[in-house]
């Protein structure tokens, strides 16, 4: 289940690609600042792969929305060798701003995506 955001046939960069690049840059800056400040716990990047999937799938479901911000809520260990990473993404579409909770479920041993669930919230 992989969607890629890149240049369109006309050579123009698609908005989803720009949003993903901005989100990655913001995450890299935040991690760099946390490391410089000596906060190793804030620099935990074990969820990085899953955050990219959460952003990608959200952009697929809401293609006209702009990503305003996102946060990592946490990881939950499940039975059967599965884990979940939870994120909250803030989106803006036209005059509406809203949140989307994204849960990414994956197999620990195989590092394989199992499912992505989304739930929209007004705040």
TrEMBL record:
Name of one Pfam family that matches: DUF3889
In terms of superkingdom, the source organism counts as Bacteria
User: Under which name does UniProt file this protein?
Assistant: YqzG/YhdC family protein
Recorded source organism is: Cohnella rhizosphaerae
